[in-house]
Amino acid sequence: MRYVLLVSHGEFAPGLHKAIEMLAGSSREDVLSTSLKNGMGADEFADNVREILKDITEEDEIALFADIVGGSPLTTAANVIAEKGLLDRTVMVGGMNLPLVLSTILTKDFADDFKEHVRSAMLTEAKEMIQEFTVAVEEESDDI
């Protein structure tokens, strides 16, 4: 199975997970999330990651998305994934956003090469989704 794991500081990953449930379905076993809460130590967070990854096997693949490149949630989750011997079956991305994660979830099972799919198509698409939103404003006329 191909899994999507969301990790973050605070409630970002669980909140994003809830938004994904609204858009992609709430009964998805392939989407997992946990977060490093204020005052939580790295060991406790690592235990949380171990718990949610306990059923993942060496046949599975993981797309790990985190809020910040190099942040504690990403590095700690990567260490746990390494402990399980799954680094070669994992693609890791920092700077997650809703379009990136949603597109990955909806298309992951159709890709021949999961890691390359996330690296190329999904990251490109996510970058294209970040744009300024503008609304045209009509100028008022002085005619009475």
How would a textbook summarize the main sheet?
4 strands, parallel
Task: Count all strands and give the number.
Answer: 4
The N- and C-terminal alpha carbons lie at a distance of 67 Å
Using only C-alpha atoms, the radius of gyration works out to: 18 Å
Counting DSSP H or I runs of 4 or more residues, the number of helices is 5
Based on helices, strands and strand pairing, what is the structural class?
Answer: alpha/beta
Q: Assign a percent range to the helix content.
A: 40-55%
Which terms summarize this structure?
four-stranded parallel sheet; 144 residues; single chain; Rossmann fold; 5 helices
Task: Tell me what you see in this structure.
The protein is of the alpha/beta class. It has a single domain, classed as Rossmann fold. Helix content is 43%, strand content 17%. The protein has five helices and four strands, in the order βαβαβαβαα. A four-stranded parallel sheet has the order 2-1-3-4, with helices on both faces. The chain is globular, with a radius of gyration of 18 Å. The model has no long low-confidence stretch (mean pLDDT 92).
Summed up:
43% of the residues lie in helices and 17% in strands. The protein is an alpha/beta fold and 144 residues long.
